[in-house]
């Protein structure tokens, strides 16, 4: 990427603020922005409250304009485990529902720093466990129709939930979609094992400093950040995981760790597809639905939901733009 292009994309970088001090302001700004982003139409949804280990967790359910699949996408929002909620992700979830033809259930898990690890994960686990064990109670015909989906920190939660379900001997989801997920604990420019952190960690949409702020709030104890439920790449046993789609963004510092997790899943015997969206920045799933990265991502997501894993792509190079299917 040449200097002019990088300078232009830098205009879309997250504001350089002290997230540890200003996360409350960021939350309020995100909610206002979500309301402003859809002024031309109302987004229909049904909101309910589910019990998760004795805690009440709000879940917002979106129906597509045209229901084309029986799948229910259980969605965990991004925001570094610190920002974001079902309100700020309402436009994105409405888009997910319409472009996949699936019902989408967005989980409003507790946020750090008020509720550090594992509290938000526990909220999500309580919801997932109930749905997988008794889907009919939520109006879902078959647990096989439940797909775990998350972006960024939400992708981290989806991966961690699948690991925890297997660890505790519960039935796991059959499929998961991880959108530019956090899978590792080290995002420092000097020590990260991933080239994408050094290439894109300073002046684009998401920065190394911002990710480290999020970790400071989500997992204050640095030693606990190596827990596989925080950093799934640290897991020594990735067997028995769901069929997985990993979607990464080319110009994202999280790119390489997301793809590394996909390859690690494949080496453990799981069915995995990895797709890198060219020219995309972190968080692109919240762009307008007509944008090229969004259209490309949903073409891949819909193919995945239809079980169209391309068998002729087994030798694709996940280090370069494009896609890879592995078993």
UniProtKB/TrEMBL annotation:
Show the stretches that span the lipid bilayer. Answer: none
InterPro entries registered for this protein in UniProt? AB_hydrolase_3 (IPR013094), AB_hydrolase_fold (IPR029058), GDXG_lipolytic_enzyme (IPR050300)
Q: Which Pfam families match?
A: Abhydrolase_3
The answer to whether UniProt assigns keyword Hydrolase to this entry is: yes
Q: Does the keyword Hydrolase apply?
A: yes
Q: Which residues form a coiled coil?
A: none
Q: Write out the entry's keywords from A to Z.
A: Hydrolase
Source organism superkingdom:
Bacteria
Q: Which SUPFAM superfamilies match?
A: alpha/beta-Hydrolases (SSF53474)
Gene3D superfamilies attached to this UniProt entry:
alpha/beta hydrolase
Q: Which residues form the Alpha/beta hydrolase fold-3 domain?
A: 73-285
Q: A Gene Ontology molecular-function term?
A: hydrolase activity
What's the protein called, per UniProt? Alpha/beta hydrolase
């Amino acid at each position: 990427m040449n200097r002019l292009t990088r300078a232009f994309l830098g205009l879309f970088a997250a504001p350089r603020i002290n997230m540890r001090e200003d996360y409350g302001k960021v939350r309020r700004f995100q909610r206002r922005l979500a309301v402003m982003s859809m002024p031309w139409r109302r987004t229909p949804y049904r909101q309910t409250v589910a019990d998760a280990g004795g805690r009440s967790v709000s879940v917002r359910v979106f129906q597509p304009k045209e229901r084309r699949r029986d799948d229910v996408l259980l969605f965990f929002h991004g925001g570094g485990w610190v920002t974001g909620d079902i309100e700020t992700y309402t436009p994105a979830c409405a888009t997910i529902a319409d472009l996949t033809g699936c019902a989408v259930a967005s989980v409003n898990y507790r946020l750090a720093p008020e509720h550090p690890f594992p509290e938000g994960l526990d909220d999500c686990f309580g919801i997932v466990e109930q749905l997988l064990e008794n889907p009919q109670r939520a109006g879902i015909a078959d647990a096989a129709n439940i797909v775990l989906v998350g972006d960024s920190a939400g992708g981290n939660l989806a991966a961690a939930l699948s690991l925890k379900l297997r660890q505790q001997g519960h039935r796991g989801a059959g499929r998961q979609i991880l959108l530019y997920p956090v899978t590792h604990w080290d995002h420092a420019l000097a020590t990260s094992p991933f080239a994408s952190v050094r290439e894109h960690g300073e002046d684009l949409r998401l920065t190394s400093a911002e990710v480290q702020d999020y970790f400071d709030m989500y997992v204050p104890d640095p030693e606990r950040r190596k827990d596989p439920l925080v950093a799934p790449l640290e897991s020594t046993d990735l067997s028995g995981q769901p069929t997985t789609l990993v979607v990464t963004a080319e110009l994202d510092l999280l790119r390489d760790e997301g793809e590394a997790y996909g390859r690690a899943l494949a080496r453990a015997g799981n069915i995995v597809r990895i797709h890198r969206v060219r020219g995309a920045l972190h968080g692109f799933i919240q762009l307008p639905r007509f944008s090229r990265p969004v259209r490309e991502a949903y073409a891949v997501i819909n193919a995945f939901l239809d079980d169209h894993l391309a068998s002729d792509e087994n030798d694709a190079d996940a280090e370069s733009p494009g896609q890879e299917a592995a078993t």
